[in-house]
Design goal:
Layout lengths: L1 H5 L5 H14 L4 H15 L15 H19 L7 H11 L1 H18 L3 H15 L11 H28 L1
């Protein structure tokens, strides 16, 4: 309560709890994303994380979250009736120790892109992946709690951007 009244940083236990719930339930909900964003923005003292997708955000953890979201989307488009996506199998490791997981995910990406019927869609995904990866020098061995939050928000924003684009495309038809 003191954090709200006096504009102090929110307790790290709030951020930690939200990240733990995401890992346990394999789902990032709007309230959890809002809590994480508020904790990080309050801690940094500025609006570091925006309300929606920020393609200009250069933070590696945020970009890794976006990358993970795109890789999951490619898998979903290539194999629509899967019981478990890469989120179910790899989210925890990708958000805390990216170096151990992303080489595997990028190999899987090639397999999934080859399965897409629409080659133009595959090219668009490759362009998007290139834009995101352009800002990633190397995969970190470990992400601290703040960066795990940035990863979660990057993932959430990218997934929401796909959903928003799909809705606007459907309305235009």
């Amino acid at each position: 309560m003191r954090s709200v009244i006096e504009s102090l940083p929110y307790p790290q236990t709030l951020l930690s709890g939200a990240i733990r719930r995401i890992r346990a339930e394999q789902e990032i909900t709007y309230p959890r994303a809002a809590i994480i964003k508020a904790c990080i923005n309050r801690y940094s003292g500025k609006e570091e994380l925006k309300v929606s997708l920020d393609e200009n955000n250069t933070n590696t953890a945020y970009r890794l979250g976006r990358l993970f979201g795109v890789l999951e989307r490619i898998q979903e488009r290539a194999s629509p009736n899967l019981n478990a996506t890469i989120r179910d199998r790899y989210y925890g490791a990708a958000s805390s120790t990216p170096v151990t997981v992303f080489s595997t995910l990028l190999k899987l990406k090639n397999h999934h892109l080859a399965k897409l019927d629409n080659k133009g869609e595959a090219v668009n995904y490759e362009k998007l992946l290139g834009q995101i990866m352009d800002g990633i020098a190397d995969f970190p061995a470990h992400l601290d709690l703040q960066n795990q939050g940035r990863f979660a928000i990057g993932y959430y924003h990218q997934r929401q951007a796909f959903f928003t684009k799909s809705e606007s495309t459907n309305k235009g038809e």
